[in-house]
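If your schedule permits, I should be very grateful for your opinion on a structural question. The matter concerns a single protein, recorded as an amino acid sequence and a row of backbone structure tokens. Could you please explain, in whatever detail you think fit, how the structure tokens follow from the sequence? I set the record out below, with my sincere thanks for your time.

——
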Amino acid sequence: VTAPSAAPYGAAMVLVVGTAGAQMPLPATKPPDGATLFKQQCAVCHTLNLSEPMRQGPPLTKVVGRPAGKAEGFKYSDALSKANFAWDEPRLDAWLTNPQAVVPGVVMAYRQGKPETRAAIITYLKELN
């Protein structure tokens, strides 16, 4: 009488082992591409070419190392035009996280919460220097 009840457990064990053996490893995630992220998230307001017409934000050509609020031909907010620093990686990272925390009173509304996205965009901007 006990033999028939053991068979279902054996079948279940085989099924579980069979299912576990069929799982495929997930593919490695591809790091975000800075050029694509820039086009998707920044290019609406910023250009990378000084020959293009100005947009809502200043051109970001050679932004790394440039004094904040000092791109020629762009009218900055009072707050940013009075900033006294040059753009470097940590400052750009803080800026993309929360511009108003870096320079209170600026008009840039974009915020990026993902560190890997900010890093990819900053790396891309550095490559353009």
